[in-house]
Amino acid sequence: MSTDLPDVSGLSIGILGGTGDQGKGLARRFALAGHTVLIGSRSEERAREAAEAVGARARGADNATVAAEADIVIVAVPWDGHKATLESLRAELAGKIVVDCVNPLGFDKQGAYALPVEEGSAAQQAAAVLPDSRVVAAFHHVSAVLLLDPEVDEVELDVLVLGDDREATDTVQALAGRIAGVRGVYGGRLRNAHQVEALTANLISVNRRYKAHAGLRLTDV
Ligand SMILES: NC(=O)c1ccc[n+]([C@@H]2O[C@H](COP(=O)([O-])OP(=O)(O)OC[C@H]3O[C@@H](n4cnc5c(N)ncnc54)[C@H](OP(=O)(O)O)[C@@H]3O)[C@@H](O)[C@H]2O)c1
User: Fold this and answer.
1) Any atom of ligand 1 within 6 Å of the Cβ of 48
2) pLDDT of res. 2
3) Contact 63, 40 (CB under 8 A)
4) Are 87 and 95 within 8 A, CB to CB?
5) How do residues 26-48 score in pLDDT, each as one tens digit?
6) Is 47 within 8 Å of 18 (Cβ atoms)?
7) At 89, is the secondary structure helix, strand, or coil?
8) Within 10 Å of residue 201's Cβ, how many Cβ atoms?
9) CA 21 to ligand 1 centroid distance, Å
10) 78: pLDDT confidence band, cut at 50, 70 and 90?
11) What does pTM read for this prediction?
């Protein structure tokens, strides 16, 4: 695989919904890699508490401040709040790379399943709501449990990175590679984000059957 990716070491990372497990887990790993991390929340107080838990490189603020100040912004809110959160931050997110890791899933007694999404996928919904941002889809399959576990030095998986803007997907591939053990691999255009998001339901089934935190490794790249 070509390793000709940009240097992203100086970029600050903002996380909307950064008080949840996924946001805190990503924040922890990016902070360990030396990034300044801005943890966003609907509540400034919850954001500050989460930032304290993550450590010295993290700062907490409301989602709008984080969206405005961070170089790259990751969306880690639940599917329920996805559209409204992004609609409210359109101005702050204009011109930025916005990384969507949201999996639109339902859960019933048979387990997890992919929900239908009018726009095709959460990532395409983000692109529709944020026409002035550079939306990239990534980090759907990474386990928050592993990201948060201090015993786990390397998170062994490939992160599929999807988007329609080559420079933006290269940047996010490089960002994924800042997490020890992770490799960012280009996974196609945003119109193919649906099945990447939906595949998370299969991984959840794997995890339940085998009591695991399964990730993907691609062969021959
Ligand atoms: N957990 C995982 O292993 C994992 C892995 C890959 C991808 N993801 C995706 O990452 C996203 C976050 O997952 P999570 O497990 O961290 O979820 P979560 O804990 O349920 O939610 C994350 C944060 O979002 C905020 N939030 C909750 N409801 C909201 C709403 N209606 N509008 C705006 N913000 C809201 C909350 O922060 P405040 O109350 O502080 O605002 C909450 O702490 C999900 O979309 C999930 O599909 C998760």
Assistant:
1) no
2) 63
3) yes
4) no
5) 999 999 999 999 999 999 999 99
6) yes
7) coil
8) 18
9) 7
10) very high
11) 0.98
Distance (Å) of CA 219 to CA 42, 160, 216: 40, 13, 10
Question: What DSSP element (H or E) covers 41?
Answer: strand 37-41
- CA–CA distances in Å: residue 91 to residues 40, 116, 133: 16, 28, 9
In the chain, what percentage of residues exceed pLDDT 90? 99
CATH code of domain 13-210 = 3.40.50.720
State pLDDT tens for residues 117-146: 999 999 999 999 999 999 999 999 999 999
* Domain ranges across the chain: 13-210
Q: Whose CA is nearest to atom 40 of ligand 1?
A: 41
Q: First and final CA of the chain: distance in angstroms?
A: 5
Per-residue pLDDT reduced to its tens digit, 45-66: 999 999 999 999 999 999 999 9
Q: Which three-class secondary structure state does DSSP give residue 29?
A: helix
3-state DSSP assignment of residue 130: coil
Ligand 1 touching residue 20 (CB < 6 A): yes
CB 168 within 8 A of CB 93: no
Closest ligand 1 atom to residue 18 Cα is 23
